[in-house]
Backbone:
């Protein structure tokens, strides 16, 4: 009797042990299509251990190796829930929910498009385009002014052509060669020649006519004798004067108007001429300008047998005079 009871208890214990093992074991699918069966143990952020039916414990399996279905089943384990939730993908919404969540586009105000049949008239369809057109037109006229100064052409001519033919007019004058600027000596010579001609014409007009000879007695002796010719000094060319207010004194002025005085050896026309500069530092006269800088010039001044260089800023110059060295 006792033997039968002991055998029954042993069999009952084995059945209970097998049932407990089967109840704790489960099958989980991996992403590589394989499966693992066993009991879940020790979940952490690196994965989970699985104890097989034979009692062996596998290596830790990362959470990324499990499928979404297996992760949802592992989520039922309270200890594994904090780690599994990070790897679960949200469920796709139902078709009815998708339609409800569809984005509805609302009409927005748009700027009207210009009429394609307007052609060039569309430029004047808005105030902004008209303003831009006027700015470009004025810039074109100003470019003509700068080109007229650079190429030494009449300002009214170049600006007028730029206003009539925008862009094309300034390009034409910019392509032309620079018109030569007459030097101060040439202007002085021309003025001197005109004055000489005027004086000769006045002298010819005022010359007295000789009276007719009158018969006289044979005893009368000639009482008049020819007057000696009056000696006159050679005429000197008039001085050319440039004053502040009428002339802008800068580097360009001295390089164009007084270019002959920048040479080391003066030409035949400049060798007898003197540059006299009146400035805040005094009155200086010299026959050569040695250096022309952006803000000042250097004048070579002779005092007796000695010579020295005087630096004169453009801002201090009041008057520049070109005269003959023998003129007072």
Residues:
């Amino acid at each position: 009797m006792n033997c039968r009871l002991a055998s029954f208890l042993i069999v009952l214990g084995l059945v209970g042990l097998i049932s407990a093992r089967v109840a704790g074991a489960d099958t989980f699918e991996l992403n590589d299509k394989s499966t693992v069966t066993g009991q879940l143990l020790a979940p952490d952020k690196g994965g989970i251990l699985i104890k097989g039916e034979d009692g062996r414990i596998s290596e830790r399996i990362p959470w990324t190796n499990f499928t979404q279905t297996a992760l949802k089943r592992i989520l039922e384990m309270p200890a594994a829930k904090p780690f599994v939730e990070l790897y679960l993908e949200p469920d796709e919404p139902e078709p009815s929910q998708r339609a409800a969540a569809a984005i509805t586009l609302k009409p927005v105000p748009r700027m009207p498009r210009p009429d394609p049949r307007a052609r060039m008239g569309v430029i004047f369809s808005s105030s902004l385009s008209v303003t831009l057109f006027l700015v470009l037109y004025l810039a074109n006229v100003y470019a003509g002014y700068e080109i007229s100064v650079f190429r030494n052409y009449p300002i009214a001519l170049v600006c007028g052509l730029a206003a009539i033919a925008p862009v094309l007019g300034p390009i034409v004058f910019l392509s032309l060669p620079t018109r030569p600027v007459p030097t101060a000596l040439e202007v002085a010579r021309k003025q001197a020649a005109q004055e000489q001609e005027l004086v000769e014409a006045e002298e010819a007009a005022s010359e007295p006519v000789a009276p007719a000879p009158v018969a006289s007695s044979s005893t009368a002796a000639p009482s008049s004798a020819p007057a000696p010719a009056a000696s006159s000094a050679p005429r000197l060319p008039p001085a050319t004067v440039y004053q502040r207010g009428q002339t802008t004194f800068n580097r360009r002025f001295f390089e164009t108007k007084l270019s002959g005085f920048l040479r080391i050896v003066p030409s035949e026309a400049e060798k007898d001429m003197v540059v006299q500069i009146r400035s805040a530092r005094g009155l200086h006269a010299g026959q050569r300008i040695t250096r022309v800088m952006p803000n000042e010039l250097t004048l070579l001044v002779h005092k007796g047998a000695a010579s020295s260089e005087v630096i004169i800023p453009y801002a201090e110059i009041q008057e520049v005079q070109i005269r003959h060295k023998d003129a007072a």
Summary: Confidence is low (pLDDT under 50) at residues 15-23, 215-231. The chain has nine helices and nine strands.
